[in-house]
Amino acid sequence: MPMYGDLGNKLALHAKRTQNLAHLPPYQAELVRAVTREVRDLDKEVTTLLEPFQGSFDPAADHATACTLLVNHLSMRRNKRCLLAYHRTRTDKLEEHVWNGVDVLDLVAQQQAGGGNGAAISGEGGASSSLSPQEEDYVRQYGDLLAAYKGQWTDIDLTGSLEPPRDLFIDVRVLKDAGEIQTEYGYVAAVHGSSRICCAGH
Amino acid sequence: MSYYDIDAILTDAEKIPCTFQLDIPDLGYLDNTPSQPLKAGTKVNLPLWLAEMLVIANTGAADNKTFVTFDLPRALGNDVVQALKADPRAVPLRDQSAHFYGLATHMLDLSEEQELGSVLRKTFVTRAAEISLHARKVGSIGHKAKSKGEGASEMGSNLGLGGAGEEFLRGLDEWERSLFRKAHEGAKAGKDWIESVKKN
Hints:
Chain A is mainly α. Chain A contains five helices and four strands, in the order αααααββββ.
């Protein structure tokens, strides 16, 4: 028995699956459109239902209509929640990618190149991209935002790995001239722009 | 519980049996007969997101009647409760509902069932202990599979519950599953850490 809210539930199931995947599955444009259409239909129905009352509807006087209105309202609210949650699950994933330094748009381009197989650039990103155009936009702008945020602290790499180094010696890049530095292995010159191997403990 | 919580949204899709208290001409489609009015007394399975509000909503009538009344879903019916009382570990909750506890919490909000709450609480506590036991064990089995040879005799002690254990884990509902995952990851991370400390 198909009823209002069923399509929204499908979206929620898609979102649930997305949570457990490493990559982002294709955007369910059809489903999203269908759910929004459902909301519009429900809204239309509410308007038609209320029309004869001329804005003076009394729920206590007409229980049946009041109940129908409530059901319609709840269905719309449910659809809204499903839509929002679906999109938020995806943007969360996208933000994660951006923080991890995965170039999402590049990934999309690669998928297109791989999927298209040289046959034709089908639909210019529409068919084979797993992101909606709005999502691509979101990623781009979020990336800019993150870059601007990181730009405030040039000497800290906010997106760097949080794993402490395991090796005894690591490469460091000299950011500020520090002149000669004495280590237990002798002197090294720390000059701006040079790269040095340092003992991890120091 | 967040507005955007997917599990909460899926829990809200669980259906409970409801009975309509008045005739409603436009809602026939809920009972699969779109052309006919929905008669008072019709029993329909409604998803929680719809039923919850309809049960609470006041019609505004003098007798304080609500639009629908509801019964406990079968997942929380007498049979299941009796089985849970006998042995919480023996009931595959997942077969009743994938979001068993979520559904139960909603129902407890709506009904005044006294006993149900305490049965469920005991159920969860008993099962949680069992879950944590399994979560630790799975890790050690996985570990042994890597370094075969040594574990033949030890495997014996683990397998005491092996087959039944798998059965039990299959019957976990979503909440218990996440608990299992967390317990499992915790045990694994702890072990990894100890190993890395030993190396240094």
